[in-house]
Amino acid sequence: MILNKEKALKVAEFLLQIKAVKLSPNKPFTWASSWKSPIYCDTRISLSYPNIRTFIRQAYAEAIREHFGKPDVIAGVATGGIPQGALIAQELGVPFIYVRNEAKGHGMQNQVEGYFEKGQKVVVIEDLISTGGSSVKAIDALKEAGLEVKGLIAVFTYGFSMAEKAFKKADCPFLTLTSYDVLIKQALKQEYIQEADLASLKEWKKNPDVWSN
Predict the structure, then answer these.
(1) Which of 7, 42, 103, 118 has its CA 20 to 30 A from that of 24?
(2) d(CA 28, CA 39)
(3) How many domains does the chain have?
(4) What's the pTM?
């Protein structure tokens, strides 16, 4: 779910401006999953631009207040959700914790790091959502630790149906500041891509595995 159309377009504009997103339908990128993709997205680059970083932080905080209410704690998902989460926790004036990809193999063997109490309400912060797998894994870890997960919010989503199914199965609402659909619309407006590129870009979102082949 996109939070605000006007802000979604502005976030997309910022991501394109700082080259946090690159679109290349004719020379696709290769993901770690071996998928071929016409888009490369690294929202962490926004952290290097104070004005954009502030806009995104405030958009996150506003969305959290509006949709989830003020939580007891903010949890960032490693690794991209950690810096964003810390900034948002500061904005909201609440504690911050983070979730590792997996429990440490030494020491306290924690997967959730930081101080929290069982029963506290938590909002989870991601940088982007692709298949939803890593996000749901973090949500499960927080629930197992005794926290009440109110929802998850990210800067960007590719809008894959598999991600929506994963969050539905996890019984966790999720929101994003912008999306793949909004981004390609903004990219066309800024002449970053051409009208002729749209069909291929839209087809990739529908069937990324087929498109890759």
Answers:
(1) 7
(2) 7
(3) 1
(4) 0.93
pLDDT for res 1: 64
Q: Can you give the pLDDT at residue 105?
A: 54
Q: What is the CATH number of the domain that holds 44?
A: 3.40.50.2020
Task: Note down the domain range covering 177.
Answer: 5-212
Q: Are 211 and 204 in contact (CB under 8 A)?
A: yes
